[in-house]
Amino acid sequence: MRVLVFGKQYKEKDLPQVQEAFDALQAEGIEISIFEPYLRNIQAEIKLPKSCEPFAGYEDFRTQSIDFVMVLGGDGTMLAATTLVRDSGVPMLGINLGRLGFLASIEKTHIRQSVEMLAKGQYRIEDRTTIYLESNPHIFGEMPFALNDCTLLKRDTSSMITIHTFLNGDYLSSYWADGIIIATPTGSTGYSLSCGGPIIFPGSANFVITPVAPHNLNVRPLVLSDDSVIAFEVEGRADNFICSLDSRFELVGNHHQLAVRKNDFQIRLIQLQDTTFLNTIRAKLGWGEDVRN
Question: Active-site positions?
Fold first, then answer.
């Protein structure tokens, strides 16, 4: 078994957990590859096994037989890892060194236990829908997809924008707002949730359209089938606005033609046997807890 360890910038307070992750992998006899930029960041701080292999980028999935990707960080690091994994089909296990951790669901106190369970095959794999952005002119290079959401937002302090929205070619509505979010079930617990959108269970085959600070107050989040194609025409006083895919963004103008649909590939997430979506949302959102005492 070979595991690719992926991370971004480390924090000094997390070094003991990062070291524990490498020690646990070595103790289980698991071969290790390390994403090169992360290797350069940690090699002076962490005692690494001598047999570690550097991993340069997406093309290395063709030359290195990677069974799993272990992501050390928070949900933002998990989203960054999807741009490396793409359509390779390699499952990802998230170790939460951040704050909330919906995607990076393994807490840092359970690192050694999670590696042991991984080695023993005590896990399941969840396939998560990704969203694909069609645009003319083309933007986002080789990665016009997102695991969480696609957003269209006004720039900085500019006035609100008008987003004319079409569903499978039929006119849906015009949103006068600071922006709009099109979220997958995975992304329903992210930006969409903070803007009043619903929580959607993974595997429910839905998208959710959530307006950001809408001017027309009767507009509410809308849940629809992920077989839908959602197209947009955007206008506003500013010359351009922001289009984002997860944590990546591009500036686009009124001349851009934009549409989103379900992507042709999914991102695969590893869930340990004792971890469920219900457990995660209860723990992260504090459901069922009485904090008054």
Answer: 75
